[in-house]
Amino acid sequence: MDFPQLDPALMLERLAPPTGKVRMVLDTDTYNEIDDQFAVVQALISPDRLAVEAIYAAPFDNNRSSGPGDGMEKSYEEILRLLDRLDVSPDGFVFRGSTDILRGEEPLESETVDDMIAKSKEGDSP
Predict the structure, then answer these.
(1) 2: which residues sit within 8 A by CB, 6+ positions away?
(2) Structural domain includes residue 86
(3) Measured by CB atoms within 10 angstroms of the end CB, which terminus of the chain is less buried, N or C?
(4) 51 belongs to a structural domain
């Protein structure tokens, strides 16, 4: 795949630190390792800097899961546990990701994909 070359001035502009609140979604294999739990909590306790619009449970496959789908489901449940402790409602905010790892160019469907597409169509702001 060939990517277009950016003008150096445009590249510097895009690399500048953002000002104001940053809109974000968090795609995380939360059950896999503890760093993701910290990322979820840090994002949610930083409303002055981050506007967390969704949390997506990502698949993983290692000794902590029986496969990608199991890893994603464990991450989804871990996200729900964290939000419960933070008294944050998961309704319309937490989405299940793919039940498999992307292995080629064929897309995979999931709640996460549907939500991300919907969010991308909502407006022009980053």
Answers:
(1) none
(2) yes
(3) N
(4) yes
